[in-house]
Amino acid sequence: MSSGEEQERLALLQGTLDLLILRRLIFGPEHGQGIARAIQETSGDELLIEHGALYPALQRLEARGWISAAWGTSENNRRARFYTLTKAGRTQLARESTRWRRMAAAIGRVLGPETSEA
């Protein structure tokens, strides 16, 4: 990715990071770096999650009871906290996914079809 493309990475809307973390954890327990890497890869390198945003989000989700955490060993043999989606987190994921899809569809209707004009 060129430096110009890196500068144009998409900024996450407020609240979206929580949704992306919850969605990632539907696939099973993961440590923070693994979550960030998976989001980046799945987004085609459009979304880069900074540590300064990731770890406060994980703490916030844990405080709300949407995820739980336990110490374990990462694939590179380092001690790491692994996060797991809770039942309450699954409920929140379903609620927020529906809300986000409705909002995205509404914004899409306002923007209308893409045109070749810039």
Write the layout of secondary structure elements.
Blueprint: H1 3-7, H2 16-25, E1 30-31, H3 32-42, H4 51-63, E2 67-73, E3 79-85, H5 87-111
Structure explained in plain terms:
The chain is of the alpha+beta class. It has one domain: Winged helix-like DNA-binding domain superfamily/Winged helix DNA-binding domain (Arc Repressor Mutant, subunit A, Orthogonal Bundle). The protein has 5 helices and 3 strands; from the N terminus they run ααβααββα. It has a 3-stranded antiparallel beta sheet with strand order 1-3-2. The longest helix has 25 residues.
Distance between termini? 23 Å
Radius of gyration: 16 Å
Query: How are the strands of the biggest sheet laid out side by side?
Result: 1-3-2
- Count of individual helical segments: 5
What is the SS-derived class?
alpha+beta
The largest pleated sheet is described as:
3 strands, antiparallel
The CATH class name reads Mainly Alpha
Which CATH architecture?
A: Orthogonal Bundle
The proportion of residues forming helix, as a percent range, comes to 40-55%
List low-pLDDT spans.
none
Q: What is the H level of CATH, i.e. the homologous superfamily?
A: Winged helix-like DNA-binding domain superfamily/Winged helix DNA-binding domain
Q: Strand tally, please?
A: 3
Structurally, how many domains make up the residues?
A: 1
* CATH-derived topology: Arc Repressor Mutant, subunit A
- Helix-strand string: HHEHHEEH
> Strand percentage, roughly?
5-15%
Mean pLDDT: 89
Shape from CA axes?
globular
